[in-house]
Amino acid sequence: MRKVTQVDLETGEDLGGFVAVIRPKQKSSFERHFTMNQAALKIIATELNHEQTKVLMMLLADLDYENYIQVAQIDIAESLGM
Asked: The dihedral of CA 30, 36, 39, 40: what is its sign?
């Protein structure tokens, strides 16, 4: 098995571990976005009726980075004319 480690070039000491290069997150050209499970989309497409799908889309539109949604039912109903 291959061992990956860090070495101090001045002393030759094996420092253990390794350096991980983590690039900063790139800003999406779509501004706000989220990732969704494709299997769940198939279930939604077959199980939800039109009004339920519209409500779900409104909820997903308000989803924040931590998957938190804070929107009143009345606001969704008014937006959708329900």
From this structure: negative
Q: How many CB atoms lie within 10 A of CB 82?
A: 11
Nearest to 65 by CA among 43, 35, 37, 45: 35
The full set of domain ranges for the chain reads 38-80
pLDDT in tens, 12-56: 999 888 778 888 877 767 777 788 899 999 999 999 999 999 999
Tell me the C-alpha distance between 7 and 14, whole Å: 5
43/45 Cα distance (integer angstroms): 5
Q: Which residue has the higher pLDDT, 10 or 22?
A: 10
pLDDT attached to residue 27: 73
Distance CA 62, CA 68 (A): 8
